[in-house]
Amino acid sequence: ESTGTDNMFKTDVREFDAEMRRKHDFDAAWLDAVLADATSEPRIIELISKPAESVLPWHRYRDHFLTAERIAAGVDFWVEHRARLAAIEQKTGVSQHVIVGILGAETYFGRITGRYRVVDALATLAFDYPPRSTFFRAELEQFLLLAREEQVDVATVQGSYAGAMGSAQFMPRSYRAYAVDGDGDGKRDLWGSWDDVIASVANYLEKHGWRAGEPVVAPAALWFPAASGLVPGPLAPDTTVKALRDRGLAFETTLADKAPALFIRVDGDNGPELRAGFHNFGVITRYNRS
């Protein structure tokens, strides 16, 4: 682990410190203290660089997330916040069930939001993890700006090992760009205000092109076993509804023939399960590709 004294002797930390003062006029004493206090956590390097021991089949991931307990928690959350969810859907067009589902998958409705100090996570990856140092230095810059703008307590605020924050798990750049004040108190608080969290998730999806009333996916089947060249593609829609049907994929949708689409194949309990994904599926993957 780095101590504060060690940190401020590192050339790249000193250069970052000087750049932040020059670009953003940070208070020198405050910034020096923040960077000196940041601790390099070897466990964070281990987590971000360690390849997965195994790639689990889709149904194993489904079983992890779709437990009876998490579903019940989702129902409770939806009932408790039904008025706000309905109002946000009316305002943005983003489906309530998608907002609830994202919050259930990301943090189990606020139960699992990360146990690393955000400043430690970002500083570790910015200065001690060369493969992605450029990205994480930029996120550390955004976090410092966010702290100044929103009075975030840098010394105590916690998040994931990659620096994702709050019940919505926004990275600092996304927080500054897409978080909104949902409860009208003049702050954008993704830790303590569910109104802000719900509004921010919807705003993120809306700003990334969510189309109100359109489906996300549809169950699908092949008309014939050796469908013409159908292979699972990228997560973003890379073809059209008509093209998928012409190549042997059968599914129901009211979307037009030219609507964006993609072919999805997942490993179910009893073999492959097929879906057609649409534009809004691609939007959700912008939130989290996993």
Q: Which characteristics define this entry?
A:
single chain; 290 residues; alpha+beta; five-stranded antiparallel β-sheet; 14 helices
Describe it for me?
The chain has 290 residues and is an alpha+beta fold. Helix content is 50%, strand content 11%.
State the low-pLDDT regions, or none: none
Shape descriptor reads globular
Number of beta strands: 7
Backbone structural class: alpha+beta
The N- and C-terminal alpha carbons lie at a distance of 30 Å
Largest sheet: 5 strands, antiparallel
Strand content: 5-15%
- Which percent bin holds the helix content? 40-55%
H and E string: HHHHHHHHEHHEHHEEHEEEH
Brief rundown of the structure:
With about 290 residues, the protein is α+β, with helices and mostly antiparallel strands.
What does the secondary structure layout of this molecule look like, with pairings?
Layout: H1 4-9, H2 11-24, H3 28-37, H4 42-49, H5 58-65, H6 68-80, H7 82-92, H8 96-107, E1 116-117, H9 118-127, H10 133-150, E2 158-159, H11 172-178, H12 194-207, E3 217-222, E4 239-240, H13 241-246, E5 249-250, E6 260-268, E7 271-278, H14 279-287
Antiparallel strand pairs: 1-2, 3-5, 3-7, 4-6, 6-7
Helix pairs in contact: 2-3, 7-12, 9-10, 10-11
